[in-house]
Specification:
Number of strands: 2
Structural class: mainly alpha
Largest sheet: 2 strands, antiparallel
Strand order of the largest sheet: 1-2
C-alpha cells in the first residue's frame, strides 16, 4: 500500500512554489525587461493571464488528460476531470496526489508562457490567449501523457525526460518558432531593452526556481534530487561562462544580457538530463549549450530572418533538443551518469527519434492552433501597425503603462524647469 512520506511531501511543496515563482515573477520580469518600455506591461499581463488560464484548464481537464490511466497511450481519459476522485487519502508514489497535480500544474503554466517571448511587441492579447489555450490541448497534454503519464507511448519506448526537455522545452520552442514565423517580424525588428535590471532579476528568479523544476522532478527528498540540483547549477554556470567568453571574443565586451541568456540556455539543456547525469555530464551539457544555443540565437536567426524576438526557440527549443539528444551520451557511466539500463548508442537513437518526432508534430499542431486563433480573433493575430509603431501594446491592448509621468514632470521624474525671472 502506497504511503505518504513527509520529507518527500515537504520537498515537493517547496518545489511547487519554486516552479510557480519561475513564471510569476521570474519569466515575466526576464521577458519584460528586454522589450521596449511601451510594451513591457503587455508581456507582464500575458504571463500573468496565462498563469490564471492554465490553472483553470489544468484543474478542469488538463490533469486528467495528462495523468489519467483511463485513456490510451497518447492521451489520458476524463475520469479525473475537475480532479474527481482525488482525496486526502490519494497517493502518487510517496506524496499526496493533490500535490502531484499541483506540482505538474506549475509546469503547465510556464510552458505556454515561454512561448510569449517569440511574439512580443506585435501579437494581440486575445490572440495570445486563444493560441496558448488551444495549444495546450493539441500539444502539451498529449506530450505530457506520452512521456510522463501512465502507460505513455514514449515512456514505453524507453524515452527518458527527467524534467521536461521534450514535454516543456521542445514543444514550447517549436510552438514559439511557428508563432514567430506566422506572425512575421516586428516593424522595428531590433532589441531595445527597456530595463535590463528587471531582466537580470528575472534571470536570478528563474535560476533559483529551476532547483524546484529539476530537483523536484526526482519526486523525493534524496540523492536523485541532490544530483539534479548539482547538475542544474553547473550547467547554468558553464553555459553562461561560455556565452560570455564568445561575446568578449567577438565584441571585446562582456554582455550582461548575453551571460543571462547563456545561463537560461544551460538550464534548458540540462533539464531532460538533470537526474540522470553527474557533475561532468552537466559541465559538458553546459558548454554545448553555450555554443549551440548562442549560434542559433544569433547566427541562424539572422540568416533565416525569423523574428524569434527573445530567443525562445534558440534557447529553449534548441536547448531542450540538444539536451534530449545528448542524454544517451552524458547519462552513460562513462561520463559519470546513472543510466545503466541501455547502451549509449541505443539510448541516443531513442532520444533523437523522440526529439525529432515531437518537434515535427508540435510544428504542425502549432500552425493549426494559430490558424484557428486567427479566425476566432477577427482574422488577424497582430495589433494594427499604428499601435505597434506608435503608442505600443501597453496602451492599445490594456490602456495602461508601466511608466507614466504625472502632470508637470519630464523624463526621470524631474519637475519641469520654470523660466527664470
Amino acid at each position: 500500500v502506497a504511503t505518504i512520506n513527509q520529507a518527500d511531501t515537504a520537498w515537493i511543496l517547496i518545489s511547487t512554489a519554486l516552479v510557480l515563482f519561475m513564471t510569476i515573477p521570474g519569466l515575466s520580469a526576464f521577458y519584460a525587461g528586454i522589450v521596449k518600455r511601451k510594451n513591457m506591461l503587455s508581456v507582464l499581463m500575458q504571463c500573468f493571464s496565462l498563469t490564471c488560464l492554465m490553472t483553470i484548464l489544468w484543474y478542469t481537464v488538463g490533469y486528467s488528460l495528462s495523468f489519467s490511466d483511463a485513456g490510451n497511450s497518447i492521451i489520458g481519459g476524463l475520469d479525473k476531470a475537475f480532479m474527481a476522485g482525488i482525496t486526502k487519502a490519494s497517493v502518487w508514489e510517496t506524496i499526496p496526489e493533490a500535490l502531484w497535480a499541483l506540482y505538474q500544474m506549475t509546469f503547465a503554466i510556464i510552458t505556454p508562457a515561454l512561448m510569449v517571448g517569440s511574439f512580443v511587441e506585435r501579437m494581440k492579447f486575445n490572440s495570445v490567449m486563444w493560441y496558448c489555450g488551444l495549444w495546450m490541448f493539441a500539444v502539451y497534454f498529449p506530450a505530457c501523457h506520452m512521456v510522463w503519464g501512465p502507460d505513455g507511448f514514449m515512456a514505453a519506448k524507453g524515452v527518458m525526460d527527467f524534467a521536461g526537455g521534450i514535454v516543456v522545452h521542445i514543444t514550447a520552442g517549436i510552438g514559439a518558432l511557428v508563432g514567430a514565423t506566422v506572425l512575421g517580424p516586428r516593424k522595428e525588428n531590433k532589441m531595445i531593452a527597456g530595463n535590463l535590471v528587471l531582466t537580470v532579476l528575472g534571470t536570478g528568479m528563474l535560476w533559483v526556481g529551476w532547483y524546484g523544476f529539476n530537483g523536484g522532478s526526482a519526486l523525493a527528498a534524496g540523492a536523485d534530487a541532490a544530483f539534479a540540483c548539482v547538475a542544474t547549477q553547473i550547467a547554468a554556470a558553464a553555459a553562461a561562462s561560455v556565452w560570455a567568453i564568445q561575446d568578449i571574443k567577438e565584441t571585446g565586451k562582456a554582455s550582461m544580457l548575453g551571460i543571462a541568456t547563456g545561463s537560461i540556455a544551460g538550464l534548458a539543456t540540462v533539464t531532460p538530463c538533470a537526474g540522470f547525469v553527474g557533475p561532468l555530464g552537466a559541465l559538458i551539457l553546459g558548454v554545448a549549450a553555450g555554443v549551440v544555443c548562442r549560434f542559433f540565437s544569433l547566427v541562424v536567426k539572422e540568416k533565416y530572418g525569423y523574428d524569434d524576438s527573445l530567443d525562445v526557440f534558440g534557447v529553449h527549443g534548441v536547448g531542450g533538443f540538444l539536451g534530449t539528444c545528448m542524454l544517451g551520451i552524458v547519462a552513460s557511466p562513462m561520463f559519470g551518469g546513472f543510466n545503466t539500463d541501455t547502451t549509449m548508442m541505443t539510448q541516443t537513437i531513442i532520444q533523437c527519434t523522440a526529439a525529432f518526432a515531437t518537434a515535427a508534430y508540435s510544428a504542425v499542431a502549432s500552425y493549426i492552433c494559430l490558424m484557428i486563433a486567427k479566425a476566432i480573433t477577427g482574422g488577424s493575430l497582430r495589433v494594427p501597425e499604428g499601435a505597434e509603431q506608435g503608442e505600443g501594446l501597453d496602451m492599445w491592448c490594456h490602456g495602461e503603462a508601466c511608466y507614466s509621468l504625472s502632470e508637470g514632470e519630464i523624463g526621470g521624474g524631474q519637475p519641469v524647469p520654470t523660466q527664470g525671472v
